[in-house]
Amino acid sequence: MLKIFIIMNIRGYILDTCAIISYFKDIFNDDKDISSEIRSEISVALQNSIYQPSPVRLIVPSMAFIEIRDKWCTSDEIREKIRCEVFIPLSQSENIHVCPFEEGILKRALFLDKYDCNFDNHDRYFVATTLEYGHPLITSDIEILKYRRHCSGNLVIRW
């Protein structure tokens, strides 16, 4: 019975690139900050303990790492720092799923073309992943925030 209670209280979130950069803002020299509540949720997910399972699970679309590499890895030194201090902790946490490119998400991303939104491919994939998994998306991206009106309440965004 206790096991069912723990499973029912798991909170899931999707992280986009904005969320990763804001959480690791010291590494990226970024001044945007997520709310203390969301910062705490990400921290809880990053804590691995076999004695106390985390109530928070995160999904990080692989697209976030591609965007970080494209826009932030401007030198070998920075690339290595991001790999060690961001990618490895996220990818090795038991509570974080790095979501590969999946066919269902790709189909959803292509379907988003019917809306008049200024999505780049990264944003399109984050929205599609969020709709596919049904967890809130942690983002501050203005274009994604504008898109919510097309989703009939199915796109929950937190920051």
Structure, described:
With 159 residues, the protein is an alpha/beta fold. The chain has one domain: 5'-nuclease (Rossmann fold, 3-Layer(aba) Sandwich), CATH 3.40.50.1010. The protein is 53% helix and 12% strand. The protein is built from nine helices and five strands; from the N terminus they run αβαααβααβααβαβ. It has a five-stranded parallel sheet, sandwiched between helices. α7 crosses α8. The longest helix has 17 residues. The chain is globular and about 40 Å long. The protein starts with a helix and ends with a strand.
Summed up, the helix count is 9
Summarize the biggest pleated sheet.
Answer: 5 strands, parallel
* Computed CA radius of gyration, to the nearest angstrom: 16 Å
Task: State the CATH architecture.
Answer: 3-Layer(aba) Sandwich
The H-level CATH homologous superfamily, spelled out, is: 5'-nuclease
**What is the average per-residue confidence, as pLDDT, rounded to a whole number?**
86
Which structural class do the helices and strands define? alpha/beta
**What would the principal axes of the Cα set say about the shape?**
globular
Count of folded domains: 1
Return residue spans where pLDDT drops below 50 for at least 5 consecutive residues.
Answer: 1-7
Give the SSE order as H and E letters: HEHHHEHHEHHEHE
**CATH top level?**
Alpha Beta
End-to-end Cα distance? 33 Å
The helicity comes to: 40-55%
Strand order of the largest sheet: 3-2-1-4-5
Summarize the SSE layout with pairings:
Layout (H helix, E strand, L loop, with lengths): L1 H7 L2 E5 L1 H7 L1 H4 L7 H11 L9 E6 H11 L3 H17 L3 E4 L3 H9 L9 H13 L3 E2 L3 H6 L9 E2 L1
Parallel strand pairs: 1-2, 1-4, 2-3, 4-5
